[in-house]
Amino acid sequence: MNINLTLIGQAISFAGFVLFCMKFVWPPLIAAMRERQANIAEGLAAAEQSAQAQEEAQAEVDTILGEARSQAAEIVSQAQKRGNEIVDDAKQTAISESDRLKAGAQAELAQDVVSARESLRQQVSSIAVSGAEKILKREVDANAHANILDDLIAKI
Amino acid sequence: MATESGHGAPTASEYIQHHLQNLTWGKHPDGSWGIAHGALEAKEMGFWAIHLDSMFWSILLGSIFCFLFWLGARRAKAGVPGPLQNFCELLVDFVDGSVKDTFHGKNEMIGPLALTIAVWVFLMNFMDLIPVDFIPEAAKRWFGIEYMKVVPTTDVNVTLGMSLSVFLLIIFYSIKVKSAKGFLAELTLQPFTSDNKFIKYAFVPVNFLLEGVGLIAKPISLALRLFGNLYAGELIFILIALLPFYLQWTLSIPWAIFHILVIVLQAFIFMMLTIVYLTMAHEHH
User: Fold this and answer.
1) Could you give the CA distance from residue B4 to residue B10 in angstroms, rounded to a whole number?
2) In this predicted structure, what is the pLDDT of residue A140?
3) How far apart are CA B144 and CA B136, in angstroms?
4) Least packed by Cβ within 10 Å: which of A156, B19, B31, B75?
5) B65 and B59 in contact (C-beta within 8 Å)?
C-alpha cells in the first residue's frame, strides 16, 4: 500500500476518460434524448389535437345523422300518407267500377228478363192457341182472336 | 485453499500477502529500474514506482467503458433506440438526473465526469466479484507474472488519484466561480466572523484551520471510503478462499451477493459526492 506514481497515472487516465466521455459520449446521447423528448411531446400534442378534431367531426356526424333521420322519417310519413291516398283512390275507383259493372249487369239482366218474358209470352200464346185448338178441335183464327190472346199473354 | 506454487504450498499468511501485493515496476534503490520481487522491494522503491496491474486493469476497464458508450453514442438517434443505445441512455439519464437534482448551474463537465466515475468505478469494483484466484493464477501460469491484483479500487493510489483529480476540480471551479479572493475569503472568514474588523481578522487562523481541514478531508474521505470498502471486501474473499474448496461456496456466495450491493453503492457514492463537492465549489456561502 505504497503511495507512488500509480496515483499520477490514474489521475492522467481519469482525465483522459472524462475528456473522451465529454467529447464523444455525453453530447450525442443527451442530444438524442432531448430530441426524442421533443418528438414525443410533439406527438402527444398532435394526438391531443387530432382527438379534438375527431370529437368535432363526431359532433358534426351526429348532427348530420340527426338531420338525415328526421328527413327519412318525414319521407316515410309522406310515403305512408301517399300510400293511404292511393289505396283510398283505388278503393273509390274499385267501388265505382263495381257499381258501374253491377248496374250494367243489372240492366242486361233486366233486358234478358224482358226478352225472356217476351219469348215466353210468344211461346205461351202459341201453346195456348194450340191448346185451345185442341180443346175446340177446330182451327181458331189466330188473327180473329188476337186481342183475346194478347190479353192472355199480358196476364202471364 | 492456496494454490500450489513452484516451491511448496504457501502458508495462509503468505497466501494473503501474496494476494495483496501489487505488481510493482519502479526504481530499485541501486538505481536500476525493474519489477519488484516481494513487498519489501516494492516498499523500497518509494514514490518512483508504478503498479502495473492496477494501471493495466483500470485503463482496460476505462477503455471498455469508453468503447461501449462510444458504440452506443456513435449512432445515437432520436428515433427508436437500439439495445446498446438504450442501455447507455438509461445510465446517462440516471446520471443526468442525479446531476440536475443537485447542481443547478451550467457546467459541461459535471455530467460526463459523473458518468465516467459511476461506470468506471463500478467496473473496477466489479473485478472484485471474479473469484480471487482466477486471474492471478492465469497470469502466473501463462505469462509468468508473479503478482496480480485485479481490483484497481483496492489500490489506494487509484482511489486517491481519482479523488485528487476531483479535488483539483473543486479548487479550479472555486477559483473560477468565486475568484481567488472569494475562495480565500471563504476559507478564512468563516465560520467565525465579526463586525469588528480586528476580531474578524483575528479569527483568520482558526477559520483557515477549520476550513482547510474540511477541504482536505473531501478528497481523503472520498478516496479512503472507496478504497476501504473494496479492500475489506477483497480481503474477505481472500480469507474465504483459504477454506477447503468444497466449503468456500457457503461463504463466498452470500458475501458476493452482498458485495454486489457494495460495489454499486460505492460507485454511486463516489459519483454523488463528486457532484455535491463540485456543486459546493460553484455556490457562494
Assistant:
1) 8
2) 58
3) 10
4) B31
5) no
Q: Could you confirm whether B98 is annotated as catalytic?
A: no
Q: Is residue B5 part of a domain?
A: no
Pairing of strands B33-35, B24-27: antiparallel
Chain B residues with CB inside 8 Å of A38's CB?
A: 78
Cβ atoms B99, B80 nearer than 8 A:
no
What's the structural domain count of chain B?
1
- Asked whether the beta carbons of B93 and A26 are under 8 A apart, the reply is no
Provide the number of CB pairs (under 8 Å) joining chain A to chain B. 141
Q: Residue B49's beta-bridge partner residues?
A: B26
Asked whether residue B225 is domain-assigned, the answer is: yes
pTM: 0.75
Structural domain contains residue B72: yes
Q: Is B92 on the interface with A (CB under 8 A)?
A: yes
* Residue at grid coordinates 538505481: B31
pLDDT digits (tens, 9 = 90+) for B117-141: 999 999 999 999 998 888 998 988 9
Q: What is the mean pLDDT of residues A118-137?
A: 82
pLDDT tens by residue, A41-71: 999 999 999 999 999 999 999 999 999 999 9
Q: Which residues, numbered 127 to 156 in chain B, qualify as contacts with chain A under a Cβ-Cβ cut-off of 8 Å? A: 152, 155-156
Residue contact A10–B92, C-beta within 8 A: no
- Best mutation site among B69, B84, B99 for testing chain A: the one with the most A CBs within 10 Å? B69
Using a CB-CB cut-off of 8 Å, the residues of chain A touching B42 are 2
Give the closest residue to A26 by CA, choosing from B99, B235, B152.
B99
Cβ distance A22 to B89 less than 8 Å, yes or no, reads no
Report if residue B30 sits inside a domain: yes
Question: How far is the alpha carbon of A9 from chain B, nearest alpha carbon, in Å?
Answer: 7
Q: Which residue of B has its CA nearest to A29?
A: B73
Active site residue B22: no
What is chain A's mean pLDDT, rounded? Answer: 89
**pLDDT given at position B145:** 87
Cα of A55 to nearest chain B Cα, Å: 30
Q: What is the mean pLDDT of chain B?
A: 89
